[in-house]
Each structure stands twice: as C-alpha cells, then as structure tokens.
Amino acid sequence: MTSPPKQLLAALLPIIVLIIIPFSIEREWHIAPNTVSLLGIPIIIAGLTLLFATASMVSSIGKGTLAPWSPTQKLVVQGPYAHARNPMISGVLATLLGESILFASIPIFLWFALFFVINNLYFSFSEEPGLLQRFGEEYAEYRRHVPRWIPRMKPWYPTEGTTPQD
Question: In this structure, is residue 155 part of a structural domain?
C-alpha cells in the first residue's frame, strides 16, 4: 500500500492543474450570463467524479497513486479503465474544459489543450513504455483492446477467465 505522504503529495497534482494554474492564468473571473456557460457545471461535476473514482481505484486496486513517482503495483483494467486507458486524465481534461466553458475563458481553454498535448506525449513516450515494461503481455493485451482516449462503448475484460470484480 502507498504511504500517506506519497498519497498526499500526489493529491497536489490535480490541485495544481485544476485550481492553481487556472487561477494564475485567468485574470477576470466571472461566470458568463448565458446558458452555454452554465453547461460547464455538469461537465466539471462529471470530470471530478471520474477523477476521484479512478484515483480511488488506482489506490485501492492498483496499490499506487496518480503520481508518476508512485506508480501502481497492479494493472487496473476495471470500471472506467475497461473503456479507456486514461480515464483519470480524461476526468481532469473534462474538468478543465468545464472550467473554460463556465468562465468563458480562452486562457483556461488553452491550458486544457496544452495539458492534453503534454499528457498525450507523456503517455506515448514514457507512461505506456513503462507500463509495458512493468506488466508485459498483460498490458500489451490491454493496450490492444482499450483505446487511449476515446472510450469503447462496451467494457473490455481480460480473456483469462477473470471478471470485473477480480
């Protein structure tokens, strides 16, 4: 199990990405008075829900944290991970998109786009090769069946007789 200090330090990452950076780049905070801006609220709620659910799974099932310096010890392929390989980052991205919509903020939208590009590069060149090295064929099979970003409609389950509860 991951130590509490590592979990606490890892919890700072979404705070930095979702609160500190947006507050540092947006100069005028206001909710635009239109229906489109209010659509940001359910997107933020959905993003945070996905973020917290997947972070919990990474801790409880994967025995790790969301931080690269404290990776999972077990590959997590259940729940949202059966639909897309990076649902935690998808939750962060949805939250940033919701913030940009709610506050009609071009700077936050640009941060959303930059964060996506950075993560796509990180997953392609660091995270996924590391997962392949740590988990071998188990991860290779998962990667063959589960897309990185666009979720599959039906969840994927490993074929070795396991169930989603395993």
Answer: no
